[in-house]
Amino acid sequence: MLLTRNVADLKKGERAVIKSFSDRDMSLKLLEMGCLPGCEVRLDAIAPFGDPICVRVGGCYCLSLRRNEAASIVVE
Questions:
Q1: Strand-pair partners of 15
Q2: DSSP conformational letter for 49
Q3: Which range is the signal sequence, renumbered to this chain (predicted)?
């Protein structure tokens, strides 16, 4: 059985590559923010209560996302 992972599943400091999006409506917003398929992401920080999280996109900038937004980014 193949398990899909998303950005919300990453541990602090872990890297992954964006594969696709699970939410069509959210995907447009994420694409506009630079979350493109094939781009590397790294989980940099997690807020004290777990939401939001800070994701470094392409090694260039940090993006603050809610966990439900991060969960729609499928990674490999």
A1: 42
A2: T
A3: none
59 pLDDT tier (thresholds 50, 70, 90): confident
Number of residues written out for the chain: 76
* Confidence (pTM): 0.89
Structure tokens given for 40 = 């590397």
Q: What DSSP character marks residue 66?
A: -
Dihedral angle, C-alpha 25, 32, 52, 74, nearest 10 °: 60
The CATH number that applies at residue 49 is 2.30.30.90
Q: Is 7 within 8 Å of 26 (Cβ atoms)?
A: no
Tally of domains in the chain = 1
Q: How far apart are CA 41 and CA 13, in angstroms?
A: 10
Q: List the domain range (segments joined by +) for residue 58.
A: 5-75
Dihedral of the CA atoms 47, 8, 26, 16 (nearest 10)? 120
